[in-house]
Amino acid sequence: MVQRSRLNTLVVYVLVIATLAVLLFPLYWMLVTALRPGNVLLSWPPQFFPADASLTAFRRVIEETLIFRWFLNSTVVAAVTIAIAVPISSLAGYAMSRFSYRGVNETGFLLLVARMLPASLLIIPLYIIFANMGLINNYLSLVIANTTFVVPFGAWMMKGFFDSIPRDLEDAAMIDGASAFGALLRVVVPLSLPGLAATTIYCAILTWGEFVFATTLISGESRWTGPIGIAAFNQQYQVSWNDIMAASLIFVIPVIVLFAFLERYLVQGIAASGVKG
Fold first, then answer.
1. Does residue 37 have a cis bond before it (omega within 30 degrees)?
2. What angle, 0 to 180 degrees and rounded to 10, lies between the N-to-C axes of helices 241-272 and 67-98?
3. pTM (2 decimals)?
4. Alpha-carbon dihedral of residues 29, 32, 35, 39, nearest 10 degrees?
5. Using the 8-state DSSP alphabet, how is residue 42 labeled?
């Protein structure tokens, strides 16, 4: 019995290590590619531990491009989108969770359907609307487009989380004199912090890496966001793979750091979004 338990534990550890290796290998290969000279990138067999590693690609990306400007642009767009999308998603999810009305189940289904629509399908009508409003090459148009794209799933996720919070807690708060909105702010919101963190991470990841809206609505190198700037390394007759990987690593670090700090909230929020009240 003890040997079987140890064997099961060993199998679990092996599976975890194998899964981590599969998940982390793309990041490792990005780093290896960024450190290798351009003339040996496509050599065969591939070098998993390059002997001629250098920081030339990182130095070239930093000194010859506006990568930190793109980083700032992406940060501003992501921060404003999160500030708008998370409250909207939370209020919409709370309304679907707490209020009974005709079509409440259909509303949740339509939100998921809206999330399944690709950005390439939405960009044409959005571009026409923004052009008529004079918002082309304006970050406001990009923020609005990103918000429309992330709110449906964010609202659905928050609804599932609110469903897991007993309504008796709000009733008790209102009996003590709190208004419905006061019960929401003082009781529900503190209990829903994991869900809010999960929704925030979801919005941040999608907005940080969004390409279709950005490349259509924004022009001018100084106004580019990160994905557009990275794509610019893909030239007509040459692809600078080491530069692309160096720039990509610079932009992926904030996402890794954010996920590392809020990972437990993300897991709790996604798990709670599937709980029925």
1. no
2. 20
3. 0.80
4. -90
5. T
Q: Is 59 exposed, middle or buried (0-12, 13-18, 19+ CB in 10 A)?
A: exposed
DSSP helix/strand/coil, 234:
strand
Q: Which domains does the chain have, with CATH numbers?
A: 1-53 (no CATH), 60-274 (1.10.3720.10)
Residuewise pLDDT in 10s, the chain (277 residues):
556 677 777 888 888 888 888 888 888 888 888 887 766 666 677 667 777 777 777 888 888 889 889 999 999 999 999 999 999 998 888 888 877 777 666 776 777 777 777 888 888 888 999 999 988 989 999 999 999 888 888 888 888 888 888 888 877 888 877 777 788 888 888 888 888 888 888 888 889 888 889 999 888 888 899 889 888 887 766 777 778 888 888 888 888 887 777 776 666 655 554 444 4
Runs of H (alpha helix) within the chain? 2-35, 56-64, 67-98, 104-116, 119-133, 139-163, 167-175, 180-183, 189-191, 193-208, 212-217, 226-231, 241-272
